[in-house]
Every structure is written in C-alpha cells, then in structure tokens.
Specification:
9 helices, mainly alpha, Lysozyme, globular
Length: 165
C-alpha cells in the first residue's frame, strides 16, 4: 500500500463525504472495491476506484461512452459515489449495512430480498454469497485498517480530516 497516495485519496474522499453528510467510515470503501486502483476493472465490467457499472455511473452523472469514461476519474467518481451512497442511505433509513449490501448487490436486488423475506435486518437476510459477505468484509477491513495503519486511516477525527486541506 502506498501510504502517501492512499492518504491523499482518503483526505479528498473524507472532504467530499463530509459535504454529503455521510459516515466517515464509508470513505474507506474503495479499499474493498479496488484497493484505490483508479483503473480497476471487474469481471462484470464495473470500473474505476468505486467499481461503477455503466448504468449506475450514468445514473449518478458520470459520462461513459467510446471517447470518455468518467468512472476512471477518481475525483468525479468520488462525487458520484457520495451521491449514490447518500441515496442508498435514505432508501434504507440510514441502515448502512443494508446500504452497503445494496452498493454491492444493487438496489433492486436488496429491495426485493427485504420485501420477500420480511426483514430489514441485514444479518437475518438470506443473500447471494458475494453480497452476504460484503458487509462483514467491509467491517473486517475497517478493523484491520485501524490497527495496521492508525496514522493513515484514523489519525484524529475524520470530521477534522474532512475540514482540512
């Protein structure tokens, strides 16, 4: 992990997420999605640091065409990720476990699972493997980051980070 580069990303993401009034922990989502790789491509075609599909990217204001792909622009895609996470937070009444699962599995999929299973408790839902494991992986990643890189990830208040620089 290149601490200087990742620190630059995290500081910027914290500032953006602060403006959108999002939980500061969500700024660490690109670690799980792409390890901060701006050019990451998944087997499903999701691209960039935030691993947006074409449809989601377009829904949240990113240009995706033959000449340009804003999913690869980490600053633009960070603003789109903030808008998307804000929408998911509202959709699931700030239940961030459900919002994160939806970020991974899709809004429609999660809404259908909640409706068909009659629960909004993430831990009680029967979900496909990747989505079921996504939230625990995110929580584990935060725990490891706190211990392994405290000076990089959790030095001082994330709200203070967001207001600085």
């Amino acid at each position: 992990m290149d601490r200087a580069t990742n620190s630059r990303y995290l500081h910027y993401i914290h500032r953006v997420f602060y403006k959108y009034d999002l939980p500061p922990e969500l700024a660490h989502l690109p670690i799980l999605e792409s390890c901060f790789d701006k050019r990451a491509v998944s087997w499903t075609g999701a691209r960039g640091m935030w691993q947006f599909t074409k449809a989601t990217a377009k829904d949240f204001g990113l240009r995706v065409n033959l000449l340009s792909d804003d999913r690869l622009n980490w600053k633009k895609s960070t603003h789109s990720a903030a808008r998307y996470l804000k929408k998911l937070g509202k959709m699931f009444d700030n239940n961030w476990e459900l919002a994160l699962a939806s970020y991974n599995g899709g809004q429609g999929y999660m809404s259908r699972q909640i409706k068909s299973q009659g629960t909004r408790n993430f831990w009680e839902l029967e979900l496909r493997k990747e989505t079921r494991e996504y939230v625990p992986k995110f929580l584990a990643m935060l725990s490891v980051a706190r211990k392994r890189y405290p000076e990089l990830y959790f030095q001082g208040s994330p709200r203070a980070w967001a207001k600085s620089g």
